[in-house]
Write a structure and sequence with these properties.
Layout: H1 5-16, H2 18-41, H3 44-66, H4 68-71, H5 77-89, H6 95-109, H7 111-116, H8 137-148, H9 150-167
Length: about 180
């Protein structure tokens, strides 16, 4: 039975050009679909994910435009880009949020400070596959302030202080009672 060399050639072409075929699907088609879905579902978390992705995709595109002649010398660049885009896009990794929160946002919020610390390497181990940690107090406080404003945070602190004073006996006492004072 003769070998089907035409099928072998098609398979070889697909394997050699995998990055050319997969990159538009991963970098454009899926994010476009997910972005439209995020707009329609009114989910703030999804909106942030996809806005962040598009900002990073624009930065990658500008990088490629500026350094195109240099990148031509690296035949592995399209595969590295495909892996990087997958890491940014896939919700299991949350790569877009990680890159934005740790690199882009600090620069945007304080350009002078970020430019002096651009080569800073943190002492703790970087986690490139972060889990969403909604219990992180700083993240929760930041999200609360963005949603409700700083006045709401101040009102919450005042309410908590009033509640604590009421639990200690309240009244017009201007002093604080400590549990340590009553140990025998």
């Amino acid at each position: 039975m003769p070998s089907n060399s035409g099928d072998d050639n098609v398979l070889q072409i697909l394997i050699k050009n995998f990055d050319v075929l997969a990159l538009p699907l991963v970098a454009l088609v899926y994010p476009l679909y997910a972005s439209v879905k995020a707009i329609e579902t009114k989910s703030l978390a999804e909106d942030e994910q996809w806005l962040t992705y598009w900002v990073l995709y624009a930065i990658i595109s500008l990088f490629e435009l500026i350094f195109s002649k240099l990148l031509d010398w690296f035949p592995i660049w399209p595969f590295l880009k495909l892996i990087g885009i997958c890491w940014l896009v896939l919700p299991q990794f949350n790569g877009a949020e990680h890159v934005y929160r740790h690199f882009i946002r600090p620069f945007y919020m304080n350009p002078q400070r970020a430019s002096t610390n651009i080569w800073y390497v943190p002492q703790k181990k970087l986690n490139f596959f972060p889990k969403r940690d909604d219990d992180d107090i700083l993240t929760a406080a930041e999200k609360y302030m963005e949603k409700h404003g700083t006045d709401a945070v101040e009102r919450m602190i005042v309410r908590k202080d009033s509640y604590e004073r009421g639990r200690r006996g309240g009244g017009s006492n201007d002093y604080m009672t400590f549990d340590d004072d009553y140990r025998y």
